[in-house]
Specification:
Blueprint (H helix, E strand, L loop, with lengths): L27 H14 L6 E11 L5 E11 L9 E8 L7 E5 L7 E6 L4 E4 L27 E11 L2 E10 L8 E7 L5 E7 L5 E12 L5 E10 L4 E7 L3 E2 L18
Antiparallel strand pairs: 1-2, 1-13, 1-14, 2-3, 3-4, 4-5, 5-6, 7-8, 8-9, 9-10, 10-11, 11-12, 12-13
């Protein structure tokens, strides 16, 4: 690969750090928060990471196209600041060099910038547009930024079997403005506390997409990462798979690798 940036992205679905005290654990809201916070704690302390992956797009007729990319993530130890990530496409040629830089926030709108090499310019993604599809995939721009714990209100729904696991089922509602989702339902396993499935509901309250996370592996630093993410749009019958190679952690990246000014110089 020509550009060795870095990242750790179990999609848009790594939690952040608790900032507010939960409601009493005896309430559905309090129990939901505690389960989400436990899942969050399982991902703390990875520092930074890089991973290469393939994005496979399938239309309703089953035709598919493949893209290769890499994602870099910088964990922020400050509990009031979200993680930073950088997505860079390598192939195919028509989108080579396309890059998305994300600075996750808690309740303020996330900062996101998209570099389009064909136009040779960096475009800031307005908060009202973050629910739009990212480069034609079934993932939205808001799915490609770290989902910090306190960006949601939680409610415990119950316990269900999910594959080979028993999972706690939570409803989470975005607290940040301009989300494309009215709510999300998450399944978190009771063994290693990882997200196994997420249902995304559109602003009208209808089921829009289902994300499944598979092939989890634990690394030497204790971090768990899913190596296959499948996002199915149930309204259009389109699907996008993200298939990850092995993650590399503590790869020597820093704040300077996640600044807007670098986007146009990545190719």
């Amino acid at each position: 690969m020509k550009h060795k940036i870095s990242k750790s992205f179990t999609l848009a679905l790594a939690f952040g750090i608790a900032l507010a005290a939960p409601v009493g654990a005896s309430t559905p809201a309090g129990k939901g928060f505690e389960i989400a916070a436990r899942s969050d704690r399982s991902d703390l302390g990875f520092g930074n990471s890089r991973v290469e992956l393939q994005m496979i797009l399938r239309n309703a007729a089953g035709q598919q196209s493949t893209r290769s990319l890499e994602i870099a993530t910088l964990e922020k130890p400050d509990e009031s600041v979200g993680d930073k990530s950088l997505v860079l496409f390598e192939t195919p040629r028509d989108i080579e060099g396309t890059a998305l830089l994300s600075h996750a926030k808690i309740l303020d709108p996330d900062d996101q910038w998209l570099f389009l090499p064909a136009l040779k310019r960096v475009k800031r993604i307005a908060s009202a547009n973050k629910s739009g599809p990212f480069v034609g995939s079934e993932f939205a721009f808001e799915d490609f930024t770290a989902i910090e714990l306190n960006k949601f209100d939680y409610r415990y729904v119950g316990t269900e079997t999910c594959g080979a696991f028993q999972c706690d089922v939570l409803e989470r509602q975005p607290r940040y403005e301009n989300s494309g989702y009215s709510k999300q339902i998450t399944w978190i396993d009771q063994d290693v506390f990882q997200i196994r499935k997420v249902e995304f509901y559109d602003r009208r309250g209808d089921l829009l997409k289902v994300l499944e996370l598979d092939d989890y592996r634990q690394y030497d630093n204790g971090a768990w990462r899913a190596h296959r993410l499948t996002m199915e749009n149930v309204q259009t019958n389109k699907q996008t798979d993200l298939v990850y190679q092995d993650y590399a952690f503590n790869v020597g990246i820093s704040e300077k690798d996640f600044v807007k000014g670098r986007l146009s110089r990545l190719r």
